[in-house]
Structures are given as C-alpha cells and as structure tokens.
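Now produce a polypeptide, keeping tokens residue-aligned:
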Amino acid sequence: MRKHFQLFISSLCCLFLLLPSTVSAHSGRTDSNGGHNCSEKSIAKGLCSGYHYHNGGGSSSGGSSSSDSSSNSGSSSSTSTKSAPSTPAPAPKIDEKQVRANEHYKTANDLYNSADYQAAIIELEKIYELKKNDSRTDTLVQKSVSAIYELAKTAFRKEDNSTAKDHLAYIQDYQRSSDQIKQKAKALLEQIKENEKVISILSKATTSRNEKNYEETLTFIQEAQKIKDTKEIKSFYNETVEALINDAEAAYQKKQYKQANKFYKLLVKIVDNPKVKAQYQTTLQQIKDEQIIQESFEINTTDFEGKSLFNHIMEEENETPYSENVVNFLESSLEEEATDAMNFIYNVNIKELFKGGKKDAA
C-alpha cells in the first residue's frame, strides 16, 4: 500500500513539472522568421507578450522554444518584447458627388418652402445630373410641379390668364411632369382658351350695343353661348334686352318711328312671355299707323291712347281700327293745307267735346 502511494506522489510531481510548458503553449501561425505577435487572448492568459519566436526561429544560438528563451533572461527579455510595426487603418472614402447632391437637395427644399417652385426644380435637376437622385428627389419634384399647377388655378380664378398659361406651359414642357398632372394642365389650358374666346366675343358685342346695333349684339351673344354658357353671358344678355327696351321706348316717344319699329320687331322676336310679346305687337301696330298719319298729313303729334276724336269715330261708329285706306279717304276729303283740322281730329280729347269744350273749333 505504501509503495503504491509513493508511486502516486511521484507521478503527481512529474505532472506538475510538465505543467508550465503545457500552459505556455498557444496557437498561432509563425511568419518567415519563425515568430509572430501574441494574440489578445494569449496575452490575457499570460501565455506570452508582444512578438516572439518559436522552434528556434530568429535565434543564432539555435534555441528551439519559448521555454529555452525564457531560461536565458537576457536574450529572452529582448526577444519577447519585440513587436512588429502596426499598419494604420485607411481613412473612409468620401463620396464627393453625394455630398454635392445633399447640398442641392437642401437648397431645393428651402426654395420649395419659400414657394419658388421652378427654382427648386432647377436645383433638383442638378441631382439628376450627378446621378444621385433617389425617392426623396422624385417626391420633391412632383410636389413642386403640383404646386405650380395650383398657382395656375389661382391665376385663372383671378382672370390673370397670361400668368396661368405660363405656369401650365411649364408643366407640359417639363420632362418629369407626371402624365396625370399634364392632363390636368391641358384641361385647364383649354378652359382658359374658351374663356378668352368668350371675352373677345363679348367685347365685340359691347361695341355693337353701344352703337345700338342690337341685332348684331344678340348674334354675338348667341355665338358666345355656343362656346360656354356662363352667368356672365346671361347677365350680359339681360343687360342688352333692358337697353333695347329703353331705347325702343325712347325712339317711340321721340317719334323716331323707323328706329322704334326696328327695335320693337326685335323685341317681339326674342321675348318669350306671351303677354309681353302681345304688348310689343300692339305698339308695333301703333307705330305703323302713326307713321302713316305723320307721312300723309305731315303732322308731328297724334293721340293713340283712345282719347282723340279720330279714335272715337273709328272705334265707336265703324267698329274697326283705322287703316291706310281710312287715312287716304280723310286726306282726300279735306282741303289742301288743312293741317290745323287734322291736328284737331287726331289730338282733341273726346271728353272735352262731351263737356262742351272746343265747340267753336269743331
């Protein structure tokens, strides 16, 4: 038993003697000189430090291991602390084009926020030239184009057609405008052109109306309505009809029968209300009859309100309105230069005669 115990102790001592050489061993490839730098793990474990040799590499005395080197304190110390020169890490490469692209985008975004949309697009185009465009570039381009379209709409509402057309032309010519925004711009541009035609026609109509050429004025209005029937055109039409009525009545009061006849004929033609149309037709007949009397007897005034002696005679006794034949008959029955007599017949109030007035004249 004692013999076995001694054998165990001897084996254990041998094991401890071998242990340092085993612990000091570490992995790692050697260079052409037979040495290498310690890894961080080996340094942490205390296996080595710095640059050192293996298998006699770099030793003129033929030392074959790190344990041999460590036995010689002079050579071992100088050898184990030797380190290879370290290579500095390369500086990161800067993308100069991307830097410039970022600057252009920032400028474009500032211009967009200040409502200078075309200038913003110019800056964004520089990014495309650098071939550094991305989704944010495309998005800002479309936002800028849409904003220009809104400017066109605002100008159109303010009747600033020139500015509106400039904006819309830009959208249509710009290569990066979407198809959708181009269609909207085209539709608005057509609307502006229609409005310009209407404005031009109404301008001509206004000139005709000022010259009292109402027939031509109404023709222009109809032409404008075919293009676009708007509230403005309807308002212009109503104003024209009102002016025509006023001028027709004024011409009739001034005994300008030719012009009055022309105006009332036009009113009969355009008025839809049957009652009003009948009134204008009655006035036309009165104008015609008064023209006959005026031309036949060379008198300037007549009474068509049913109060004159002539009207009383024609309506009460003959039960028929007077006509050209009646006038001719009266003319032939009177002596020449009987103007005073004719004025009496056509202008004396029948009520005065009933009361006994103007008996001597009768």
In short: Strands lie at 35-37, 51-53.
